[in-house]
Amino acid sequence: MKKIEAVIRPEKLEQVSDALIASGYHAMTVTDVRGRGEQRGIALQYRGREILVNLIPKVKIEIVVEDRCVDAIVKIVKTEAMTGRNGDGKIFVYDIEKCITIRDAKDGVKSEGKDDNSNEGDKKGE
Amino acid sequence: MPREENEPPVFGGCKLGVESKMIDSGNTAFIIVCTALVMLMTPAVGLFYGGMVRKKSIISMITLSFVAFIVVAIQWVLFGYSLAFGTDIAGFIGGADYLFMNGVGLDGDGIPDILFMVFQLVFAGLTVAILTSGFAERIKLGAFVLFALLWTTLVYDPLAHWAWGGGWASQLGALDFAGGTVVHISSGFGALVAAIVIGRRLGFGKETMKPANIPLTLIGGALLWFGWYGFNAGSELAADGIAANAFVVTTIAAAAGSLAWMALSWWHSRPSSLGMISGAVAGLVAITPGAGFVGPMAAIVIGAIAGCVCYGALLFRVKKGLDESLDAWAVHGVGGFFGALATGVFCSAAINGVDGLIYGNVNQFVIQLVDACAAVVYAMVVTYVIAIVIDKTIGLRVPEGEEYIGLDISQHGETTQM
Q1: Which residue segments constitute the domains of chain A, with CATH numbers given?
Q2: Is the pTM higher than 0.90?
Q3: How much is the ipTM here?
Q4: Chain B neighbours among A 7-36 (CB < 8 Å)?
Q5: In 3D, which of A13, A88, A53 has the Cα closest to residue B408?
Q6: Do B413 and A11 touch (CB under 8 A)?
């Protein structure tokens, strides 16, 4: 089990979310965050002086899935969130030790992609 | 209102500059309160608009309304009032009689001249604030200050003169009780042209630009509605029956507009609060030119049709991919145009001496049509020239990085986020 954590541009959230749904990845957690990267924010000119806005609003997406889904999801997020300019964000992938669904106290995650029919382990949907 | 040649300018029920002046304390008290009510509409427009932009530009949006007001206030007492209400020159503009408040005294007919001046001032300020819709989230503050000054001088002042200062429209007998043409057509169509010249917001059409704070917009809408009583009833310039009629039809048209818009958006999907309040504003706009001339039942029709027409205009604007961001054109421009025509249709001699189309007076309708079309063309052409000139010299628009960060930080160094 892995957690994919992506910090992206807020205006790209809808696009990323739609693309994930279209590929069958429904579960995600979204948080409004602020941050900066190596460029230390965005420099604005004000009366000839440079003013650094050093914390830029971003959105953080967290998705927990089976290992084999990671590459597909990373690819979707990378494609959809990319503009090619500074500030597109980062994707981190973590190992997850345990995942418990509170409703039925079952372990593990449901993660089925569109082309992924092998995941019949937990088929108890709503 | 038919006027004799050389008769002093008429605004609402009041004649200006007539000898044997007498101040009426009741009227004066009423107009002082109405002036304060109309002043409140300017920040109300700011709040109304502010809630509809993205979080990063809320402060900027509200501030633009205040800036519009403070620039116009000074312009008005220096020379704007004189351009609008000075002695008529060729039916187009007022003369230099009242420059720097010369001859604007504490006496007057019914109300003090200086009170009439400031009542008109708050209208002028509001008009420029409505226009900020077309510049939302991308205008340079400095460019806007210059734009506001030029626009109020070259567009608002002549239009106010045409309708109320003894210009050609009032000589023709065009009816504009509280500013459908002067305030709403000019600012609405001006905003459309402004939006086209400055260009769409970054990412418009690709990203969703959801309103950041709808309760703020609802507060702004409530204050607008409240202030509108001063705007419409006060335009009678006297505390009398016509003022009371204006007050009543203002309420009714707003309610009818709101219901109509809500019904349409309900039919489309879910009835948004934004649609409900926009419909109220559409009704208020449409009743403005006719408030002193039409009755309560006509107000229901005017308000309801305005709600539908403005809703249609909004859908048209979105479909055309125009980023007239906060719909000053759809609501104020189109609503004001419809209201000007509706005044010519529904006005009744039983209320204020002039009959409209439904009472068989085709002539009045034609006059309204000519007046409204002239205002549309004049406002669009002159706004275009002003916007282009500013864009080619100091530039209207902020650089891309500043727009991305938002105008709150880039223009004001302030932010709403912690």
Answers
A1: 2-107 (3.30.70.120)
A2: no
A3: 0.71
A4: 11-12, 14, 34
A5: A53
A6: no
Q: Is there a domain that residue B9 lies in?
A: no
Facing A44 at nearest CB: one of B56, B410, B417: B410
DSSP code, position B332:
I
- Encode chain B (418 residues) as per-residue pLDDT tens digits: 444 444 444 555 445 544 456 889 999 999 999 999 999 999 999 999 999 999 889 999 999 999 999 999 999 999 999 999 998 888 889 888 899 998 888 888 889 999 999 999 999 999 999 999 999 999 999 999 999 999 999 999 999 999 998 888 888 888 889 988 999 999 999 999 999 999 999 888 888 888 999 999 999 999 999 999 999 999 999 999 999 999 999 999 999 999 999 999 999 888 999 999 999 999 999 999 999 999 999 999 999 999 999 999 999 999 998 899 999 999 999 999 999 999 999 988 888 888 888 888 888 889 999 999 999 999 999 999 999 999 999 999 998 888 888 898 888 888 887 5
Q: d(Cα B294, Cα B346) in Å, to the nearest integer?
A: 6
Pairs across A and B, CB distance < 8 A: 24
The C-alpha atoms of residue B347 and residue B182 are separated, in whole angstroms, by 19
Q: Which residues of A touch B416 (CB under 8 A)?
A: none
Q: How far is it, in rounded angstroms, from Cα B224 to Cα B43?
A: 9
Q: Does B418 touch chain A (CB under 8 A)?
A: no
CATH of the domain at B39: 1.10.3430.10
B92 at A interface, C-beta within 8 A: no
Give the total number of structural domains in chain B.
1
**Structural domain that includes position B290:** 19-412
Q: Which residue has the tokens 């479909």?
A: B319
What is the rounded CA–CA span in Å between residue B256 and residue B297? 11
Judged by CB atoms closer than 8 Å, whether chains meet at B208 and A14 is answered as: yes
